[in-house]
Inverse folding.
């Protein structure tokens, strides 16, 4: 592991909780096992990929472009709709989101604090012939390196695993270019989330290993909004992601009590 990543609490690596990163590293080989420890991420991946795609098609006006270019709706055929746009996937794990984003045409950088995760992600992208730039870095290191800003920054299911979520999110926001978007997904610190995401998913259904989540690190949508105060990004209302036990499917929902996603937009005219 790179030296700078061993120093939890240092300026360069300060968002890292070593115990959390070690837990994900230990599972690095399992990212693409659809029946393994990351099965829940695989199951709700289509819902969040669709949400990101539809939000971006709308925001960047790429529906029209794709229509002109291919004479089919980009919603039906989103292939390469985002050509020319730079996307950063913060805490990319094995690349479950980076890969579909690359397939839709984004120029993707995936970043993770775990060297092993980055190894898995790189190997899987190579097998699939996908050109993704994967970095074993923290978002603080990338921000400090003078990186060109991104049209889209994703931080999905990561913020509940970092040391200082406020500073972490502000650093993620600082990498969004004017006119760009930040996506955040996490779990709400509600009793319902305790019942479903901790007791249900970890202890009753065994969907994820016990100890995957610490309820006290879950965040409410209003906390996410507060973290973005003082940045030029303006958050949309949170959108719930809900599992329907009858259909056994995940989908978008008005209920943000358990899993939710939030989009924040950087207006072109605002200045940091
Ligand atoms: C639940 S996984 C989510 C992976 C991916 N975003 C997804 O949704 O498929 C959380 C990931 O965040 C990474 N991580 C945890 N703390 C981090 C930090 N401070 N900086 C960067 N990555 C971090 C872990 O190594 C792990 O790969
Ligand atoms: Mg999580």
């Amino acid at each position: 592991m790179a030296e700078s990543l061993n120093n939890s609490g240092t300026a360069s690596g300060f968002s890292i909780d070593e115990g959390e990163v070690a837990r994900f590293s230990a599972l690095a080989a399992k990212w693409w096992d659809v029946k393994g420890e990351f099965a829940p991420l695989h199951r709700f991946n289509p819902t969040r990929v669709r949400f990101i795609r539809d939000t971006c098609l709308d925001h960047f006006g790429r529906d029209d472009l794709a229509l002109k270019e291919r004479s089919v709706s980009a919603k039906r055929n989103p292939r390469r709709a985002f050509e020319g746009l730079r996307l950063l996937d913060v805490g990319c794990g094995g690349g479950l989101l980076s890969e579909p984003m690359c397939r839709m045409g984004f120029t993707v950088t995936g970043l993770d604090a775990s060297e092993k995760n980055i190894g898995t992600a790189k190997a899987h992208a190579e097998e699939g012939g996908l050109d993704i730039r994967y970095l074993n870095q923290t978002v603080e290191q990338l921000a400090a390196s003078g990186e060109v800003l991104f049209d889209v920054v994703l931080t999905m299911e990561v913020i509940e695993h970092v040391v200082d979520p406020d500073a972490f999110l502000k650093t993620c926001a600082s990498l969004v270019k004017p006119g760009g978007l930040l996506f955040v997904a996490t779990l709400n610190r509600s009793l319902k989330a305790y019942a479903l995401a901790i007791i249900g998913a970890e202890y009753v259904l065994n969907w994820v290993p016990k100890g995957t989540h610490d309820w006290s690190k879950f965040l409410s949508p209003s906390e996410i909004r507060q973290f973005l105060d003082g940045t030029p990004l303006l958050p949309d209302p949170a959108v719930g992601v809900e599992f329907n036990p009858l259909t056994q499917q995940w989908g978008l929902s008005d209920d943000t009590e358990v899993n939710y996603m939030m989009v924040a937009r950087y207006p072109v005219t605002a200045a940091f």
